[in-house]
């Protein structure tokens, strides 16, 4: 049953990056859009993220619950030593959702709309940035469980160039996913080309920040190159992601390939996550001095794991059909789910 729980945890993280990432990316794209195109971008973004708006944070909640119930030591370590970036990320989620709601459904249209717009776009940037910071910090070896002062325990555990670089890389990935998703929601050729241009810009940004991540990781003694290229699966995954990127750029110039390019973008992110996590599996937190927290060695009691696994399996029977129906309902009403 432990493997069932681990698969659900990994899948929840992946889906949050893909769906939540595209959601956050909508605000990132808006942030880097010129004033003359902002209103049309907002309208298109609103229509594009509507199918996943109600459900994307479900995956984050599942991941947190799985850690809390199934791996309490891991949950306690992350939530203690990384509580500052975690709180900032959660505030970003709350601020973003609130701003999105008020700017679209507020009964009074006044100057506060400008405030809501700013909160929405900046929180859309901040939230995935700190999500990347948290992920990088968990495996960077900077968490010191023996720290006795505030800075060592709660600041230097996450404040590093590697974590910052991964944060910017995550932002670029989210912007790329959003741009790819939105291409299929455009209604004219001009805006289609504009969002294709955004997708390419965000993709270039992701490549640049990805290179920065490698440079910083090497300078800080983090074996990122070994994680990615130290085994056959990692090499195959990165090669597949690179080849699919070439194909995606080619298909961006072709009309009527909406579903294919979305699948390719999701496939790339999946391969990157697989390559990074598989190498040091089952170690999910790597701490100072070579210590680690393992999904196998630091799991909860067998009864807790069994109950959690059963809850996840039975819950899927209820949740997944409802989720698919939600997506179907939105896409049927908008008429935008097409090839």
From TrEMBL:
Subcellular location: Cell membrane
Keyword vocabulary terms for this entry: Cell membrane, Membrane, Transmembrane, Transmembrane helix
Bilayer topology: Multi-pass membrane protein
Assigned GO CC terms: cytochrome complex; plasma membrane
Family: Belongs to the cytochrome ubiquinol oxidase subunit 2 family.
Keyword Ribosomal protein: no
Pfam families referenced in this protein's UniProt entry, alphabetically: Cyt_bd_oxida_II
Biological process terms in GO annotation: aerobic electron transport chain
Transmembrane region(s): 6-32, 53-76, 82-99, 119-139, 159-183, 204-222, 228-252, 259-278, 304-328
MF terms in GO: electron transfer activity; oxidoreductase activity, acting on diphenols and related substances as donors, oxygen as acceptor
Protein name: Cytochrome d ubiquinol oxidase subunit II
UniProt main location, coarse: membrane
InterPro entries associated with the record: Cyt-d_oxidase_su2
């Amino acid at each position: 049953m432990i493997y069932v729980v681990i698969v659900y945890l990994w899948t929840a993280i992946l889906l949050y990056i893909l769906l939540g990432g595209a959601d956050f990316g909508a605000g990132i794209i808006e942030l880097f859009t010129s004033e003359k195109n902002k209103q049309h971008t907002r309208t298109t973004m609103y229509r594009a993220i509507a199918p996943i708006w109600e459900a994307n944070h479900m995956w984050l909640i599942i991941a947190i619950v799985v850690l809390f119930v199934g791996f309490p030591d891991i949950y306690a370590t992350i939530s203690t030593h990384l509580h500052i970036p975690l709180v900032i990320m959660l505030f970003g989620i709350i601020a973003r959702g609130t701003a999105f709601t008020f700017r679209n459904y507020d009964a009074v249209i006044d100057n506060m709309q400008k405030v809501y717009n700013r909160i929405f776009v900046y929180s859309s940037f901040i939230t995935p940035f700190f999500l990347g910071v948290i992920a990088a910090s968990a495996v960077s070896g900077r968490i010191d469980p023996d720290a006795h002062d505030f800075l060592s325990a709660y600041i230097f555990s996450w404040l590093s160039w590697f974590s910052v670089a991964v944060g910017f890389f995550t932002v670029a990935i989210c912007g790329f996913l959003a741009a790819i998703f939105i291409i299929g929601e455009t209604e004219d050729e001009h805006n289609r080309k504009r969002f294709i241009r955004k997708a390419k810009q965000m993709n270039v940004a992701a490549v640049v920040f990805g290179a920065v991540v490698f440079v910083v990781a090497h300078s800080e003694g983090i074996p990122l190159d070994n994680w990615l290229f130290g085994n056959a699966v990692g090499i195959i995954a990165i090669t597949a992601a690179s080849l699919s990127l070439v194909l995606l750029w080619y298909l961006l110039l072709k009309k009527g390939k909406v579903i294919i390019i979305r699948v390719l973008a999701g496939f790339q992110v999946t391969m990157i996550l697989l390559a990074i996590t598989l190498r040091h599996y089952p170690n999910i937190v790597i701490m100072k001095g070579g210590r680690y927290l393992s999904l196998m060695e630091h799991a909860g009691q067998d009864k807790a794991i069994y109950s959690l696994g059963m809850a996840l399996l039975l819950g899927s029977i209820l949740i997944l059909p409802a989720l698919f129906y939600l997506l179907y309902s939105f896409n049927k009403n908008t008429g935008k789910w097409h090839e």
